[in-house]
Amino acid sequence: LGLGAAALWGATKLETPKNNDVLLLGETHPIEIYGVLQKGGFMDSSDAQLWVSLNFGSTPYDEPVFNHLNPKKLPDLKLDHSFDPSSTDAQTWLASFCENTDLLMTKNSNCFPLVFKEWVTAQHSRQLGCAGQDLMTCDTDTPYLDAFASACGEAGFPVVATKSVKCMKHFAELIAQQNGDSSQSPLKMFYQPTGTSSDDDVKMFFLQLSFASNISWTSPIDVLRNDYDKWDAYMSSQLATAPAGLRNGFHAGEAWHWMDTVEQMEIGAYTAAFVTLLLCGFVVLLGTGNVVITFYSLVAILSILGAVTATVVAIGWTLGFLEGICFSILIGLSVDFVIHLGVAYNEHAEKSVDAENDDDESNTTRESRTKEAVASLGFPIISAAFTTLVSAVILFFAQITFFNKFGLIVMLSMVFSLLATFLMYVPMLDAIGPQREVGNVGVLCRKRK
């Protein structure tokens, strides 16, 4: 029992992964070595950074009711019809937000409103230099001032609300001409409403501002969580001061889905273990009808789980995707031997009830029941453990890491199941196992009546 308690303490040291690498082929395989080098050794600082985005024009949406247990019910996005970046207040706030975020949170960003402000200010300065003159002949540099005046007017920044979206699209077209039209082009933020053809009718339906965080996207989960909390608090405080057309913005990060997945996987693993133990207890209680045997069985099963988990923690495992699958299988493997012996002990106890009035009291003692249970099932249990152990050894020769880990889990579960069954569970039944009708649910219920 002491070793079982120590194993459970060691199992509590199981941690989540330190990065988001899933090595299917092992650390020494050339493909995995290449992947690690590509992520770490040949990346510049901007590639390795976690990028955080503030998104306008869409809102997270669940239809009709989001069900976490139904994989077919996925969250979605819907257009935010209140989104309006055209007002002068909205333009000013967006540019100021970019400047403040660059100053307070990061030194690297991709912020369209700030670049737009700088461009409009520069073109407006050219306009002022040609005041009272023909724009076509006064300044022949590109972009041409007459096209700028037609799209953006002559007020400078912020652009008047009636021309602001048209001006932004004009600027986006210039960027696309310079950099090439790609998936990163700001032109994707605009659309032409059905039934219209003029640039005056163009609408902006989406806006994304991107900022480089100060950590890597391969950082440990606790570092990602701290960074998420920091960005969440900052974004929430900034959006509270935004104009009405921008208050539904929301932020996202490239690695935060991984962070949430690992956190939920950890919660799910412990929840699954707890629920499975309850089910095991129910099955043992259903099969034996004895609360004492059920309690002893749960103690033994917990010790097996703790011993296997503590061992893999000592080896260096963390609770990743592959390990989570292995642990879910471990719970089922850990209950088999204990339940068989518990049921055998109880069946012999029931047969011994008829012998209570016999002169030979040895037929009703816990020692005789334990010996009978071990005599009838000891060899089959050891044989089953041996064959399962041999099959697990074969998995160590596989190239895929999952099979290696699965084989180790099976092997450890067989070893510790045998040890816990014959060195803990059997001695518990032999020393303090229930006698006669002690712990019998039927008897307890009749006494209450």
Polypeptide structure, described:
This protein is of the alpha+beta class and 449 residues long. The protein has helices at residues 2-11, 30-41, 45-48, 88-104, 112-129, 135-138, 145-152, 161-179, 221-239, 256-288, 291-315, 321-333, 336-353, 366-394, 401-432, 441-448; strands at residues 49-56, 58-61, 76-79, 109-110, 190-191, 203-204, 207-216, 250-253.
Structural class: alpha+beta
Continuous helix count: 16
Q: State the separation between the terminal residues, measured CA to CA.
A: 36 Å
Q: Which stretches of 5+ consecutive residues score pLDDT under 50? A: none
Please describe the biggest sheet, giving its number of strands, its sense, and whether it closes into a barrel: 4 strands, antiparallel
Spatial sequence of strands, sheet with the most strands: 4-7-1-8
Share of residues in strands: 5-15%
How many β strands by DSSP? 8
Features:
449 residues; four-stranded antiparallel β-sheet; two-stranded antiparallel sheet; 16 helices; 60% helix
